[in-house]
Amino acid sequence: MKKHRIALISAIVVASVPLLATAASAHIAISSPDAVQGAEMSLLSFRVPDESPKASTVKVSIDLPIDAPVANVWARAIPGWTATTTMKKLTAPVKIGGFNVDTIPATVTWTAQSGTGIGPGEFQIFDIVADPLPDVPVLTFAAHQTYSDGSVVDWNQPPAADGSEAEHPSPEIELAAATEGADMNASTSPSADASSSPVISASATPLPTASAGSDTSNDSLARWLAGLAVLLSGACLAILISRRRS
After folding, report:
1. Does any domain span residue 78?
2. Within a domain: residue 7?
3. Residue 63, pLDDT above cutoff 60
4. What is the distance, to the nearest Å, from the Cα of residue 129 to the centroid of all Cα atoms in its chain?
């Protein structure tokens, strides 16, 4: 009986290892469909899972990078959440997208309204639009996740010295290098290409043009009709003269 208990406990422990590894590997991740250096109006999505077995996530704050700032940011409205953006005054202006900027967006925060939040075993996507993305290969953020029990998890740790992932890693995303001549606003405002754009004129349906052969046949027909008209006119004139004589 004792051996069966030991075997059962060992089986439970072994089965629990993948679950523990999955829970430990969960973290705030970031993705983007247009992560290109210098891209305008780029969408950045933060995936936030709730890791507490009992408490719900009631606030999420994303710290935007100060060393590689963006000029503007917009937060997607989420039902049941209130989004706010905190601005930061710089000690000296910086050049972003060809403009000198002295105030930049520093933090975007979503706060759950009463009765709302991310429950245990659930996740939520928080989107922002950044304009423009900086010219850096990697964009690193810091995130702060507040739970309904008052606990706060700071996702702001860099990788360990050996390259392994930290316990609470910072959300970061790689930015592809912009190709020369590419439209950095192609995802939100596609430019029309002259070779592919239809041109609508005032005469949408062009009139058919006659060929050389049809011109010849039409000319012959006109001459034949004109001759016929002369003959008919002559016949009518002859009838009228004959009636007058009679």
Report:
1. yes
2. no
3. yes
4. 9
